[in-house]
């Protein structure tokens, strides 16, 4: 096995959580080149992984919305780049039309994808020469690793290794005055995934009492207004300026604690081994959550709004004095 292409195009959390596959492949096939096909919006994430040899990206999302000529030309160029090198195997772990087209356009004679009943779009099945099924007794993130290991016939060795290297900023983005930094990710792609502002205010006040410098990132004008509603009620909390994806990642890398709803940046905090609490309101904690004792906790049943008390108990847990997991050889990340 000399060259493998992994296709996982979106979204942020999924692309982040799929990164351990690269380390798995590098261990299983010494010397193998691993390329990654991703939407341009999330190409930065793949580039943070030094184990990826080539990041193939195109503005697929943007072209779908705007249909601009320059985006079409960028897509055409990315197809030429895709076909510049042959692959021993292409593994599509996305399972929709756009990912299947990428697999089909590659020069590989071996293209693996999900069974029809497991595809996000059943018509994507046209692209594959071989099929696989995700395990039914795993969450989505462990399932992706096991799916690829089973499809390519290698055993999984050890815990997930995300291997993400965030570039250091030229200067610190947040001046905490020497206090540990806590980030609150209140924003979500859908309103039903959001936690009430009053709950965030209580959590922010609690973190300030614990000695944290509390900062709230945002992306859109609506998110800024929601963040301002939180910090305006908490002395010692700051609404951050609008930051790029890389700048937010750098802020997470400098943080000591992250709490947020089910969103990509909280998954990034988990991948960077930050102490993390993730709140599930309308999505499945069992399917998409992260849990590492004394470091990363997911709360909520996916059908209702978790109370503040549940979040406070989770914060207590990840800030326990325990530093090691007896018998497992895995230590909690230091703050």
Could you explain the architecture of this structure?
- Helix content is about 35%, strand content about 15%.
- It has a 6-stranded parallel beta sheet, sandwiched between helices. It has a 6-stranded parallel beta sheet with strand order 9-8-7-10-11-12, sandwiched between helices.
- The chain folds into 2 domains: about 5-150, Glycogen Phosphorylase B (Rossmann fold, 3-Layer(aba) Sandwich), CATH 3.40.50; about 180-330, Rossmann fold.
- It is globular and about 60 Å long.
- The chain has about 325 residues and is of the alpha/beta class.
- The model is unreliable at about 320-335 (pLDDT under 50).
In short:
The chain has 13 helices and 14 strands. It folds into two domains: 3-152, Rossmann fold, CATH 3.40.50; 181-331, 3-Layer(aba) Sandwich (Rossmann fold), CATH 3.40.50.
Structural class: alpha/beta
Beginning-to-end CA distance, first to last residue: 40 Å
Are there runs of 5+ residues with pLDDT below 50, and where? 321-335
CATH 2nd-level architecture of the largest domain: 3-Layer(aba) Sandwich
Number of helices: 13
Proportion of helical residues = 25-40%
Query: What is the CATH domain class of the largest domain?
Result: Alpha Beta
Mean pLDDT: 92
**Integer tally of domains:** 2
Number of strands: 14
Question: What order do the SSEs take from the amino end to the carboxyl end, as H and E?
Answer: EHHEHEHHEHEEHEHEHEHEHEHEHEE
The spatial strand order of the largest sheet comes to: 3-2-1-4-5-6
List the quaternary state of the chains. Answer: single chain
The fourth-level CATH homologous superfamily of the largest domain is Glycogen Phosphorylase B
The fraction of residues assigned to DSSP E strands is: 15-25%
Silhouette: globular
State Rg: 21 Å
Largest beta-sheet details: 6 strands, parallel
CATH overall fold name of the largest domain: Rossmann fold
Main location: membrane
EC number: 2.4.99.23
Membrane topology: Peripheral membrane protein
Pfam families: Glyco_transf_9
């Amino acid at each position: 096995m000399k060259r493998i292409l992994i296709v996982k195009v979106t979204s942020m959390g999924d692309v982040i959580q799929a990164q351990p596959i690269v380390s798995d492949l590098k261990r299983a096939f010494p010397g193998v080149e691993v390329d990654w096909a991703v939407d341009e919006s999330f190409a930065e994430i793949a580039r943070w992984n030094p184990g990826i040899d080539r990041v193939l990206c195109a503005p697929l999302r943007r072209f779908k919305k705007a249909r601009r000529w320059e985006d079409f030309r960028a897509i055409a160029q990315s197809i030429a780049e895709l076909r510049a090198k042959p692959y021993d195997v292409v593994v599509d772990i996305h399972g929709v039309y756009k990912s299947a087209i990428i697999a089909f356009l590659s020069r590989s004679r071996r293209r693996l994808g999900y069974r029809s009943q497991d595809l996000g779009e059943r018509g994507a099945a046209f692209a594959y020469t071989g099929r696989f099924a995700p395990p039914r007794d795993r969450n989505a993130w462990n399932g992706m690793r096991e799916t690829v290991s089973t499809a390519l016939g290698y055993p999984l060795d050890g815990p997930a290794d995300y291997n993400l290297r965030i570039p250091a900023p030229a200067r610190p983005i947040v001046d905490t005055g020497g206090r540990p930094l806590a980030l609150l990710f209140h924003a979500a792609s859908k309103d039903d995934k959001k936690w009430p502002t009053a709950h965030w205010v209580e959590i922010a006040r609690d973190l300030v009492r614990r000695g944290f410098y509390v900062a709230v990132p945002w992306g859109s004008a609506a998110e800024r207004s929601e963040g301002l509603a939180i910090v305006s009620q908490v002395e010692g909390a700051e609404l951050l300026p609008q930051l790029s994806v890389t700048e937010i990642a750098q802020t997470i890398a400098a943080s000591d604690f992250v709490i947020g709803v089910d969103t990509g940046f909280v998954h990034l905090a988990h991948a960077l081994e930050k102490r993390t609490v993730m709140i599930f309101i309308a999505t499945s904690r069992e399917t998409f959550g992260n849990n590492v004792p004394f470091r990363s906790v997911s709360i909520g049943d996916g059908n209702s709004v978790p109370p503040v008390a549940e979040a406070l108990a989770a914060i207590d847990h990840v800030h326990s004095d325990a530093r090691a997991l007896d018998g497992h050889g895995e230590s909690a990340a230091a703050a």
